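Below is how a single chain appears once it has passed through the pipeline. First comes the sequence as given, then the structure the pipeline wrote out for it. We keep one example in the README because the format questions we get most often are answered faster by looking than by reading.
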Amino acid sequence: MTPIEIVALFLGAFLISVLGVRLSISVARRLGAVDAPDVERKHQETPIPRLGGVAVALAFLIATLVVSQFLTMVSGGMALSIVGPAFLVAVVGLIDDTRHLSPWIRMSVQALAALLAFALGTRIEIFGPTWLNVVVFVLWVMVIINGINLLDNSDGLAASTVAVAATGAAAISIYVGQELVSLLAISLAGVSVGFLWHNWYPARVYLGDSGAYFLGFIVAVLAVRLRPESSPPTLAALAAILLLALPVADTVFVVVRRVSTGIHPFTAGRDHLSHTLQRRGLSVPTSVGVLQLLSVGGAVLAFVVLALAF
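Resulting structure:
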């Protein structure tokens, strides 16, 4: 992609996201799709619309499909092989936003979407047996989807994490010449920053499960797709983990902490890394900024790992 194409795609995705999320705020208020304040976890002063993720998903789809028509190396079908399964998890997330599905139903659909993505060409090839690579890929996708959802606990945290990871993926894919990943990563960065326009503290809209699932799925798949032909599979796997260091670290932190204290891992609570920083006196924006240092550091290391292997 040329520099002009890169800038145009980012700005286009950003503007579509900004306008789409603004529209979703009005729609959510009319439908009553809002998160009301509560004593335990939601400390905002007023009800906040939570359909922003739907607008982000649609903005991503529009930007990706439009630009893919002008790139010789990328077809709309190639893009849909990734975006299609992502919409599957977004739909189940949207249903959960309104009807509160069982965790097992949500996880089953996430696993199904990961299997579909694997069948459509997104592969992990670390181990000999194919079934083991499938299992690892499905677990990876589920960890990142739920990791991004868990990070959606402070204004701007989930979206900024995806924006940083997407920017890192874009830089790597442009450097090594992976045009499909470049297209998707730049678009993902644009829509994430566009959402942040409304979601930065104090937030005027939330992602909801639909948005967190969608963004988590896309960024999980892009991390796996980042594999220059000359790089060993193990280095590519290391780069993927580094690129998404924050959701991985936060998920491990929360699960270990809850299990060690006899709390079910699926239980909601204010025991994440962001909450720990905030209890120590940091403001919400400052805690988000501190955690993004981890994201940026991981993205830089991922670039170095794959660039040296290229």
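The longest strand covers residues 34-35.

See the next section for the split statistics.
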